[in-house]
Each structure stands twice: as C-alpha cells, then as structure tokens.
Write a structure and sequence with these properties.
This protein has a single domain, classed as Rossmann fold, CATH 3.40.50. Helix 5 links the parallel strand 2 and strand 3. It is of the alpha/beta class. The chain has a 7-stranded mixed beta sheet, with helices on both faces. The protein contains 9 helices and 7 strands, in the order H-H-H-E-H-E-H-E-E-H-E-H-H-H-E-E. Bound molecules: S-adenosylmethionine. The site of S-adenosylmethionine has 21 residues, from loops. S-adenosylmethionine binds next to loops.
C-alpha cells in the first residue's frame, strides 16, 4: 500500500499545518479523556514518540508538572519547531529532542526512566508498531503509563465526516482512510497487551481513541 503519510514530514508547510491543527486535535475532550485514563498525578519525566512540533509536550509539561521531557521524531524540521515551542519552558538540560526513525532504530531511551510515555498519531505511520511497543514498555519506570492517541478503523462514514469538517474533500478522506485508520481499537489494545502492558483501558472520541497501558510493579 502507498504510504500516504511518510514522505514529506520535513516539508515546512506540513510542520506549520500540524502545529496549527494542534488545538483542534488536542482540545478539551482529549485532555479530559487522557487525564481520566492516566490520572492527574505528577509525571516527572515524559517521553513523546513522534512528537512532531512538540505542542503535546508543551501542554503535558504543565498538566503533569513534568521536570524533564524527551521528544523523538524522524523529522528534523518537526524537532526544530518543537525546540522553538519548548524553549524556556524547562531548564535546557531537561529538554531532550532527538532524531530517531522508528522504522530503522530503537528509541534508545534508558530503561526504567520514564513516568509517562505518549504517542499521538504515530503508530499507524510506522512499519512495525508491535516492534516499538516493547521498547516503550522497557523505558517506563514501574507504575509508568503509556498513552496513545490514534484514529481507529471501523467507521468510514464518520471518518469522512470528521475529515470534511477539517476541510478535506470526501475523495481525499476515502483515499486516506486505509492509511490513517489502519488498526481497530481491539488491535491497538492487543498490541499493548502483547508488549507486556496491563490494565489496558481506552476511550473513544468520535473516530479517534485514547488507549493506555500500565507497566505494573513486579
Ligand atoms: C501525524 S504526525 C503527529 C505529530 C504529533 N504527535 C501530533 O500529534 O501533533 C506523525 C509524526 O510522526 C513522525 N514519524 C513518522 N514516521 C516516523 C518514524 N518512522 N519514526 C519516527 N517518527 C516518525 C512524523 O515526523 C510526525 O512528526
């Protein structure tokens, strides 16, 4: 299948569009859902896989009172924008932004160091999400949580409606559906359990879902 998403993440226009659409994608409902699933308590170190322009990390730093953030992304242009948005938010040494392509490398995060790992609209982009998740699991401290935000398959009509509301044509939405809604919620939950996560929970937000898994204390 043609990979509709991958080729142009370094395109400055795409970086701009992604940043501009952040508040619509990560609005009140998203934060209410995420905080309900993770709990509101402090998360000192937050990892964002596929952080894009870094706006989730910016918000999450405040919401979870983080001290240290790590953003990983394959796109240098995205990380440059993230650097700009995050400048001055935390001490410089506590903001780590690094180029990593999950299709060819491990995240390279030290084991047992992360309190909250997150990925937004990443898992459908990469070749092998099942291969990435055990690394995410390993990076978490015991009682650490991984949360993901993704489109899910199963409702083409609602997906088209959602994308049309964002200004996309019906034809484009239909073309994008197999790429953006590659997995069902049950498949995502299965991937988390397969990687070792327990207490897997999820919540649907129209055609998107937030799902979380816990690294239990041994
Ligand atoms: C749809 S964007 C989402 C960005 C951000 N999480 C957000 O929601 O605003 C997907 C991000 O994943 C990154 N990405 C795509 N494929 C990747 C890969 N193989 N390894 C690492 N990052 C990748 C892109 O550069 C882009 O920043």
């Amino acid at each position: 299948m043609e990979n509709l998403g991958k080729a142009d993440w370094d395109d400055p226009e795409r970086v701009k569009r992604l940043a501009a659409s952040y508040s619509q994608r990560y609005g009140k409902t998203f934060w209410h859902t995420l905080l309900k699933l993770t709990g509101p308590e402090r998360r000192e170190t937050i990892l964002d896989l596929g952080c894009g322009p870094g706006l989730f990390l910016l918000d999450a730093t405040t919401r979870y009172k983080a001290k240290r953030v790590i953003g990983l992304d394959a796109s240098e242009a995205m990380l440059e924008q993230a650097h700009h948005f995050l400048a001055g938010k935390l001490e410089e040494s506590n903001t780590l932004l690094r180029v990593v392509d999950f299709d060819s490398s491990d995240p390279g995060v030290e084991p047992n160091t992360i309190d909250l790992a997150f990925s937004g609209f990443l898992l459908h982009e990469i070749r092998n999400p099942e291969g990435l998740l055990p690394h995410v699991y390993k990076s978490l401290k015991p009682k650490g949580i991984y949360a993901a935000y993704e489109f899910v398959s199963g409702d083409l009509v609602s997906f088209i409606d959602y994308m049309k509301r964002g200004g996309m044509s019906e034809a484009d939405a239909r073309r994008r559906y197999p790429h953006m809604c590659k997995y069902s919620l049950a498949q995502f939950e299965g991937m988390l359990r397969g990687a070792g996560f327990s207490r897997v929970k999820s919540s649907l937000i129209d055609v998107r879902a937030v799902f979380v898994g816990l690294k239990a204390e041994k």
